[in-house]
Amino acid sequence: MKNLRLIFSIATIILASVAISCNDRNHTFNDIEIELIDKYKNSIMPLKTINQENDSLFLREISEALTKEDLTSSYFADLTNSMLLTVNNPENEGVGIAAPQVGISKQLIAVQRIDKEGEPFEFYVNPKIVSTIGEKETGGEGCLSVPNKRGEVERYKKIVIEYNNINNFELKSDTIEGFTAVIFQHEIDHLNGILYIDRAENITDK
Fold first, then answer.
1. 64 near 192, Cβ under 8 Å?
2. N or C, which terminus of the chain has less Cβ within 10 Å?
3. pLDDT tens digits, the chain, 206 residues: what are they?
């Protein structure tokens, strides 16, 4: 009986390893992205900025949608962890970050939900704005990818977003308003190759 239990345990481990291996095979992360994610695992990732020509061109690309298989891969878990460390870098903090800003051309953003208790950061997969409510309002914005600049941007005060749930990939929707809605609009722009300076007026040095 003991030997049977041992065989069963080994078989379970092998099957689990195969499942993880399969999940890490059935994903859309390319070799460059995998190398970047592995290199900066559990650490702050370098930001793409407009100060570098190649970075600036990369930030203008439209990001690729994530799949359900992507979310179960180890690369996705490592990426979200590193993105969180990057946006919370005490030397260069932000209220939101998009995967393209760290060199990963995927539709993934992290937003600080200042409209929720504790103001947690939350990740959103394949987010898009499906409706806008009311008028726009002008406010000041900056960006981690546009260092030492600020500008005034017109944004909708209330929006409706759709996204895939990070746990089960189910399609969800949420109505966001106030400054949190501004953050969402800013970060979703990144996924479409748009920077806030494309919409801004009165851009000044910080």
1. no
2. N
3. 434 333 333 343 333 444 444 557 778 999 999 999 999 999 999 999 999 999 999 999 999 999 999 999 999 999 999 999 999 999 999 999 999 999 999 999 999 999 999 999 999 999 999 999 999 999 999 999 999 999 999 999 999 999 999 999 999 999 999 999 999 999 999 999 999 999 999 999 98
- Determine whether 187 is an active site residue: yes
117 found inside a domain = yes
Options 33, 64, 141, 187, the catalytic residue: 187
Whether residue 184 lies inside any domain: the answer is yes
Residue 83: which CATH number?
Answer: 3.90.45.10
In a domain, 15, yes or no: no
How would DSSP label each residue in 17-86?
Answer: HHHHHHHHHSS---HHHHHHHHHTTTSPPPPP-TTSHHHHHHHTSPPBPP-HHHHTSHHHHHHHHHHHHH
User: Has residue 133 been placed in a domain?
Assistant: yes
Domain count, the chain: 1
What is the pTM (predicted TM-score) of this model?
0.88
